[in-house]
Amino acid sequence: MSYWDAFFKLHSDLPREGPGSDEATAEALRRLPALPDSPRVLDVGCGPGRQTLVLARKLQTPVVAVDMHEPYLDQLRASAQKAGLTDLVIAHPGRMEALEEEPGSIDLIWSEGAIYIVGFVEGLKLWRPLLRTSGLVVVTEATWLTENPSAEVEAFWGAAYPAMTDVDGNIRNAAAAGFEVFDHFALPSSAWWNEYLTPLEERAAKLRVEAAGDPELTQVLEEHDREADICRRFGDTFGYVFYLMRKAN
After folding, report:
1. Can you say whether the dihedral through the CA atoms of 26, 194, 10, 241 is positive or negative?
2. Letter string b/e over residues 197-210, b meaning 16 or more CB atoms within 10 A of that residue's CB
3. Ramachandran region of residue 4, left (φ > 0), alpha (ψ -120 to 50) or beta?
């Protein structure tokens, strides 16, 4: 199989495709200013959409959820039906760098654990024209939580995500992209393990035998093992941070 076939073989039927929790999503929502009546909400890079369900339930407004991987959208549609939210979750395929929304039409863009795909600054610049004058963007972004990370963890993230910076750096980057960060908070370590890394490790364990004859799957599993090891040993030096932003004039 190809590398991406192997990747999605590991990353399938999981509760989340990145660190997060329903509680953290709800906390970010509580910190937002009041939205207009009948707001237009877009969840970009939604994955299987756990956060989409929270948005739809809490806001009681339709949420358009976009992802390029159709199986994730199928999982979200099934979850929305089970939760009685079918009328509030609109899942359709799309790429975050080529969204098909009308300029100036969106009140809130949400993206948990996905903006890194195009880059924090580039994603904000791409999405800014879609927002109304008072539009908001909420994202989680991998962020340094210490000024002096060890050489090992710095090398890991230097290879995985060279643009990663600290909170102050992301606040400056947001300003350069035309946004004001009005609030931020780091996800707790439980948001990494409970619904992301632990289920991922359980799925990886089931694929070990099959991986013995498949170099691509072996590579994907080794990459996962490395990420989990780094998180166990250095998880207090980095994390995902919620950034709550408004479009600057």
Report:
1. positive
2. beebeebbeebeee
3. alpha
Question: pLDDT tens digits, residue range 172-230?
Answer: 999 999 999 999 999 999 999 998 999 999 999 988 888 787 899 889 899 999 999 99
User: Residue 138 is inside which H or E element, if any?
Assistant: strand 131-144
Residues 6+ apart with CB under 8 A from 21: 187, 188, 190, 191, 194, 195
How many Cα atoms within 13 Å fall on the side-chain side of residue 17? 25
Three-state SS string over 49-116 comes to CHHHHHHHHHHCCCEEEEECCHHHHHHHHHHHHHCCCHHHEEEEECCHHHCCCCCCCEEEEEECCCHH
Q: Side-chain half-sphere of 234: how many Cα atoms within 13 Å?
A: 21
Tokens of 52: 């989409």
Q: What is the pTM of this model?
A: 0.95
CA separation for the pair 192, 194 (Å, rounded): 6
Once rounded to an integer, what is the mean pLDDT over residues 133-160?
Answer: 95
How, if at all, do strands 106-111 and 89-93 pair? unpaired
One-letter amino acid of 147: E
Name the residue with tokens 């879609």.
Answer: 130
- Give me the residues paired with residue 66 across strands: 44, 92
Cα 243 to Cα 178: distance, rounded to the nearest angstrom: 14
Q: Which domains does the chain have, with CATH numbers?
A: 15-188+237-247 (3.40.50.150)
Read off the tokens for 16.
């989340």
Per-residue pLDDT tens for 54-80?
999 999 999 999 999 999 999 999 999
3-state secondary structure of 220: helix
